[in-house]
Amino acid sequence: MTNLNVTDITSSIALSNNTVSRRIDEMAYDVEIKLCDILRITKFSLQLDESTLRDNEALLLAYVRYVNIDEKITEELLFAKSLITDTKGLTIFNVVNNFFIEKGIPITNCIACATDGAPAMIGRQRGFIAHLKNAVPGILTVHCVIHRQHLIAKNLSNELFDTMRFVINAVNKIKAKSLNDRLFRQLCHENDEDFERLILHTEVRWLSKGNYSDLEIYCAHLESLKDDMSTRFKDINDLIIPEWVLNPFLADIQNVQPLIQEELLEVKHNEEAKIDFKHKGYELFWLKQKTMYPQIWKEVELLIMAFPSTYLVEKGFSAVQQLLTKSRNKLEICERGDLRLMLTSIEPDIISLAGKHQPQGSH
Fold it and tell me: What is the helix, strand, coil percentage profile of the chain, to 5?
């Protein structure tokens, strides 16, 4: 080993200008193939949002949530696509639908979809959701809870709004500079705080602001705020979650629909299932029981699989900003595999990919 020349070894490795880029793309494509193979045969929920990059390029990100082969809920980046012309609902739907067609994924496998509150997304006539419901009748659509909470915050009274604005400005000032962020973390560490990081506050776009400047008394403001919350969260308030979903062992069998009474009765008197429920919680519990009790799983699948918000897409946009540094601002984020490899939990088949390449000397 001591007689090996490091220079000779390094020079024998083929590393042209595009070699590393090609390897990244190959691994990302392998991950995409594995993901699409899964989505062709399983139900999944969808989460997507659109944002604008620094060069005014409109970027559409989509995530999926599904149950993998190990009976675990998995969340993966589905795609990153550029919106070449406009960001209308029909354009977004065509991008999503064309991807499913290209990959051979039945769009009917999508059982739920979460978006923000932009008119292009939730417009009743021409929004993305309207087109999606035409293609998949009965699909559950969710308006991101995070965006709705932000809307409620914008409708606070003047005193509360000023307080909120002060906190937001303080947070953004800390996060704006790396030195401030490091000093803040050090301060939290010295005070034995549970959390040491802040999330940079960003405005939610496209959403209308309420006008409560005429409110003169606190009670009237609270009443208006209550009405506003009831309107914005109507779909969630109307969503009925049976008590037996959260705890099947306390369920009254007589109040359960006849189709699942027999299976639920078996669950209720299954001592091993009781132990699993106690240690795993209702989500992991029902995932484990889905094969044994298929009728019950049909009832709980949608409640467990649906995205409550677009948090993963927002995380994806943050990753895009990290990749598009000053020295890499020309990176074709939609064409290259960097973003997928950065966000995926699926392992590419390195051995198989390496076997397709013949070792060769320097060229």
Answer: 55, 10, 35
